[in-house]
Every structure is written in C-alpha cells, then in structure tokens.
Amino acid sequence: MARAKKKNLAKKRSSPAGRIAREQPIAPEPNRLLKVWRRVLERRLRTRLRAPVAVEVHDNTHTMLTFQRHRALWRLRLHHMFLAAPDEVIHALADYVRNGDAEASAQLDKFIERNKIYIRRVSPAQMRKRLRMEPVGQHHDLGRIFERLNERYFRGRIDAAITFGPAPRVTRPRKSIKMGSYSADSRVIRIHPALDQPVVPRYFVEWIVFHEMLHNVYRTRRGEDGRRCIHPPEFLEHEKRFHDYSRAQAWEMENLDLLLRARVSA
C-alpha cells in the first residue's frame, strides 16, 4: 500500500497542472488585498486614538478624508492614498481627528499635495454632469447675476457654473451659515438656498456671488506658517471693488439672524 501511494504521488507531481500551479501562483484578489490593507490601517489608527476605529476607503476626487464619532467608535472615510501612509502621517491624522490640531491639518495637506498623483483625474465638465444644477430660484436667478457680474468685473473670463446648493438638514437653530462656496475642481459656485428669499436684496446676493467668483481668480495658497490661506490680502482688496460692498456688509450685519432662522424646503 505504501508503494502504491508513493507512485500515485509521483504522478500527481509530474502532471502538467501541478507544474503550472507551482510556476504561476494565483495572485490574491484586489478586493482581498484592499481589506487587508484597510484592517492594517484600522489597527494603526486604533493604537493612536485608543478607541475602536472603522475605516472606509474611497477613490473620491475632491474630499480626501471625513470622519465622525458614534459613541466610542470613530468612523473615517479616507482616500486610498492613506493605506500606506508613513507613521508620522498616521500620527497627524489621529491628532487631527481627535483634537482638530492645526499643525496636524497642515501636515495632512502636505501629504495630500505630495500624493495627488493618486487622485483620479476628472474634468470639471464631467464633474458637473454628476451635479444637480439649479441656478434659478423662486426670487433670484443666479445665472443672470453671474453673467452680468462676469461681464462687468471680469470681461467674461470666469469659466464656472453656478447653482443654489441643496437644502441642508438642520434640526436645531443654526449658529452660523456658509452663504457660498466655490469648488476649484468642478468650477462650481454654490449659493445657500436661504438667500433665495424676497427679503434678501439682489445686491446682497450679487456680493456673495462676486465673492465666490474671486476664488476663481485667487487660488488657495499656503502662508509662511504652513496654513492654507483662502483669502489672501489681494483677494480682500479686490472684493472692495464691488459696487455695493459697504451696503451689502451693512445688510449682513443687520439681518444675519434672518438668514440663520430661514427654513429652507428640500
């Protein structure tokens, strides 16, 4: 019986299938590798945060990291560039998540800048196709406002789209409001829908749109302290050229509570 087993074993080893299996090992599936790297990253962060951590890896083109805490659990959504990040970056990530540390934030920005080659490139036009564009409100037409400001102040050179942003989900009274934003990736200006009220004067909406259009001219840069500078001095000086600058500022100071209390329907 022993000789028969040995003979059969020899045949199995000399079979073509056996040779192929030894010469060309089957590579692990990409999804399996991703799970392994993700679990390693979770352990690295768990050690530094001293709390349970759940990581979701994505391939976004704009927001590289977001996080929230649910009781004792930290939930992080990270771009895949963080999977093999060095220890100092993981340490900075933990500090930023735990304390909102400014130095850690600057270090993360530098890491993302150095690794932007791994960010999938999508043209602004492609990004806009994914967005719901609604420039015409019930009381203000952002498209017309944008076109007139573009001709008056920028000779039509601002290549961007504009829309009212989605109605935010707010259950409690707002303490602050972000009236506008500009995405350099998609070149889209979003205006808070709370501004689409009959009591909000047109010149104030124009000022907010003008402010966001300036972000197309003056890009975000870093100051001497390494922090991001969104509104450099030349930006602020240029903003004063708006024809109703002082009037718009005065209206904001007097009516901010009105905007904070505004109820916006989805």
Automatic annotation (TrEMBL):
Basic residues composition bias: residue spans: 1-14
Chain intervals for the UniProt region annotation (Disordered): 1-24
Annotated protein name in UniProt: SprT-like family protein
